[in-house]
Amino acid sequence: MTDVDIDLREVIAGLRGLREPAPPTLARGALLRTGVADGFAHADSPIGQVAVAWGPRGVSAVILARGDDDADVAELERVAARPVVPASRLPDEVARALAGERVPVRVNLSSVGPFDVAVLRATRRIARGDVRPYAWVAARIGNPRAVRAVGSALGRNPVPLIIPCHRVVRSDGTLGQYALGTEVKRTLLASEGFEAAR
Questions:
Q1: Does 1.10.10.10 match the CATH number of domain 114-191?
Q2: Strands 58-64, 38-45: parallel, antiparallel or unpaired by DSSP?
Q3: Per-residue three-class SS string for the chain
Q4: Could you give the CA distance from residue 184 to residue 166 in angstroms, rounded to a whole number?
Q5: Helices 114-124 & 147-155 angle (0-180, nearest 10)
Q6: Whole-angstrom Cα distance, residue 167 to residue 98?
Q7: 87-112, pLDDT tens digit by residue?
Q8: What is the pLDDT of residue 193?
Q9: Residue 1, pLDDT above cutoff 50
Q10: Among candidate residues 154, 151, 180, the one with its CA nearest the CA of residue 47
């Protein structure tokens, strides 16, 4: 045996003698770095505090915070369709996007089907301060008669505020439905300079 050879029996014996527990953040960090789980944190937004989940593939869920971490985790996991664990803070670009800045943010839409992905991609192109009717989105995805299905897909948007489904309204200028509530939709549009018809 040379100086660089390792006797596995000695290593194993040495490891058995360790008594220090692993740091509490070790498992969480490993889950995040390997992409097995998404991180989550809270952030301020124009509609109040939100909880956001994100991972290597992008933001996977945005919900209104409930004031209870366990409830937020359960809802984020339902929306993102993947496990989430606490993280120290949001990525800077996500925090800036939630504050209303136009910055590129990756999104992970693996929790929704192909039709929803097409609807959400078209919706993402609607600029701040602008609105489009549900029929416009249906036409953009090549399915002009799918107006009602577009509304349903927008209701399943896992990343509202990042993908601005609040900017889709009825053809007559009235708001239509919104997963986070009609008043939230009205508030968001007003903050962007659009007054909806009543």
A1: yes
A2: unpaired
A3: CCCCCCCHHHHHHHHHCCCCCCCCHHHHHHHHHHCCCEEEEEEEECCEEEEEEEECCEEEEEEECCCCHHHHHHHHHHHHCCCEEECCCCCHHHHHHHCCCCCCCCECCCCCCHHHHHHHHHHHCCCCCCCEEHHHHHHHCCCCCCHHHHHHHHHCCCCECCECHHHEECCCCECCCCCCCHHHHHHHHHHCCCCCEC
A4: 9
A5: 90
A6: 15
A7: 888 999 999 999 888 899 999 999 99
A8: 85
A9: no
A10: 180
pTM (predicted TM-score)? 0.81
Per-residue confidence at 196, pLDDT binned at 50, 70, 90?
Answer: low
Q: What's the pLDDT score for residue 32?
A: 62
Map out the domains of the chain as residue ranges. Answer: 26-98, 114-191
Domain with residues 26-98, CATH architecture: 2-Layer Sandwich (3.30)
The dihedrals phi and psi of 45, each to the nearest 5 degrees, come to: -150, 175
Structure tokens at 53: 């989940």
- Give the percent of the chain with pLDDT over 90: 63
Q: What is the mean pLDDT of residues 58-71?
A: 94
Q: Show which residues are catalytic.
A: 165
CA 111 remoteness from chain centre: 10
* Token digits of residue 35: 């992409």
> Would you say residue 116 has pLDDT above 50?
yes
Closest CA to 55 of 91, 23, 25, 27: 91
Look at residue 28 and tell me whether its pLDDT is greater than 60.
Answer: no
